[in-house]
Amino acid sequence: MNFVLLVVVLLTAITLVAVALIIAKAISPRSYNPQKEEAYECGIPTRGKSWMQFRVGYYLFAILFLMFDVETVFLFPWAVTVKELGTSGLLSILFFFIILVLGLAYAWRKGALEWK
Description:
Layout: H1 2-27, H2 56-73, H3 75-80, H4 82-109
């Protein structure tokens, strides 16, 4: 019985999404202009190719930022329940901080945070 309900829910979801896409395609305005195919950057016409390679350092810096940013988001639930967790909660967050600092030290030592 539960399997039948799951199949009905999945089919309903797929049908609703398909119908929404078909209706959007049918009633959306159409205007074909070659200018729409051009790359757009802040209202300034692009010079040269729009697809250019960036140094891997930019990506590495962004990934490191996101990694440490997401890890610090995990501190909020801990801060809310710190009184209820007691000593074990304090030790677990201390371990978390140690891992965080070791990761930062490793990235710093490898030169990932330096702009060259």
